[in-house]
Amino acid sequence: MDKTWNNKAWFLVLPVLVLVAFSAVIPLMTVVNYSVQDTFGNNVFFWAGTEWFEELLHSDRFWEAMVRNLIFSFIILAIQVPLGIFIALNMPKKGWGVPVCLVLMALPLLVPWNVVGTIWQVFGRNDIGLLGYYVNALGIDYNYVQDPIDAWVTVIIMDVWHWTSLVVLLCYAGLVSIPDAFYQAAKIDGASRWAVFRYIQLPKMQRVLLIAVLLRFMDSFMIYTEPFVVTGGGPGNSTTFLSIDLVKTALGQFDLGPAAAMSLIYFLIILLLSWVFYTVMTNYDAER
Amino acid sequence: MARIEVNHIRHSYLPNPQKDQDFALKEVHYTFEDGGAYALLGPSGCGKTTLLNIISGLLHPSHGKLLFNGRDVTNLSTQERNIAQVFQFPVIYDTMTVYDNLAFPLRNRRVPEADVDRKVRETLDMIDLASMANRKARRLTADQKQKISLGRGLVRSDVNAILFDEPLTVIDPHMKWVLRSQLKQLHRRFGYTMVYVTHDQTEALTFADQVVVMYDGGIVQIGTPAELFERPSHTFVGYFIGSPGMNVLPVSLEGRTAKLGAQRIELPGVPKAGAGAVELGIRPEYVRLGREGMAVQVSKVEDVGRHKVVRANLEGKEIAAVIGEDDEVPADPKVSFDPAGINIYADSWRVEMGA
Fold first, then answer.
1. Residue A85 vs residues A160, A285, B66: alpha-carbon distances, Å
2. CATH no. of B4-230
3. Which of A130, A243, B257, B264 can bridge A224 by disulfide, Cβ–Cβ 3.0-4.6 Å?
4. What is the pTM of this model?
5. For A170-192, what is each residue's pLDDT tens digit?
6. Chains A and B: how many Cβ contacts under 8 Å?
7. Chain B partners of A190 at a C-beta cutoff of 8 Å?
């Protein structure tokens, strides 16, 4: 059968196109514009070509931020995914405990990000912070303002506190969708607790887990607010992740050209990773 | 294999059952003999699955005891009871191949791999999936998946009993027939104790030596298919078994006669009925349609292929009669009841008739 071509359809998508143009495409183009020019203010621009990109790709500062960010993402995934699964497995499946657990789990997700930062900034202080004071009182030298390791530990624990719930809720949704008959059959078949997890629960959670990993990776790769509030990227540059570095370049130093080039590269990385995840997910669906 | 004693078992899904109505399973007391093929037959919600799950240990009964070969297993887990059970809807392990799905119950019990292979191949042949042994189970059709579930139930030979919970619901009619005959053969060959839950009378009657008819949380009759057909002990069994079900007509008794409106029906004996509502039950197969007997108005004739079902009105009551495929309904139809097919019920329960 021949396809019917109807150009009227364009009018129907037009509003969306206009909206996206104003909210995304045009701002992005100004960034592209900045990235290939140099300016000293007064709206005077000089053509710079690929200079900013080359400079950035040879800059240690950029690669250090990138490596820090990847390590951070890796650590929080390594903690949040297993921990999230573990908590979801142990959450009640029925009764009054269900709403209680769900609300408790959702709470950290509802706190605004800069508030999360402020909470931990205060919580970890060793003069007035509940955590910082008592950890030091126990004889452990903890000071996130001066010690890079302590700063990392604080930022990671904060992220785990803030975002593990998301993994829990997604896994829990996957778990409750498993019909009772599967558990009954597993009992009949003499399956161990581990076998039930490995052959029933994990396969049923696979899809939501993939989404959880995608979301958590993207979020942690773009993390800005919370570490900015707690450590401001320090001590030194030890918790300066890509987005913090970007803001420092763009707004701190007002280097619009390099910052624009960095934005674009950052954007391309996110785009590439999204595409990889999308492909993996759709392939997985097609296989079923 | 085991003899399964269900000793005064009651079960309620409520935490504090008080009244009889709170119980999904009102007292059941029965023994499934070693090597017997049983069917639990009844409508949805009558407690048959509850009883099955109590036998397999998926449910712990509120009251009563369960014994396997005289040994109390009420507090043993499903694993310890060593039971196989097949569920209504296919349960397969998505990530495994067909072969691994069948091997799963054996490997969990640490059966040597050589025996696993032998048993799995045997079972694959039986359920006709040998050619798909290495396929991923999740890509199969619903009835193939159900065959895997069935296979997992049959793959262990040392089980105490095999329980089937309406296993053929998702299978198409032809395959149903084939699988049911295979189960029957298996039963003859290995003498498994088999309990088969169904709401389909054909399935129950063709599969089982003994059919346990359940209704509203209790057992109403246990018998061979023939007994259930000839002498239903409760009007429910009369309705439920047979197609169409038994005609049940309210009558009043007078010695050897039952009075239905202006009609008098000769009984084969004197019913030992006390007070209470008395009914006369007669299967459509025993209703003779001809020129003699009680006048009826025929309302409908259904040709079901092998025979015809005549729906008629007798003294204001609907009755059904079965006549041969080639028989014609006479112009002035009358019915008579074959005395051999008459049963008398008092308060829905069958009463004996004396000489």
1. 13, 22, 38
2. 3.40.50.300
3. A243
4. 0.77
5. 999 999 989 888 998 998 888 88
6. 54
7. 79, 105, 108-109
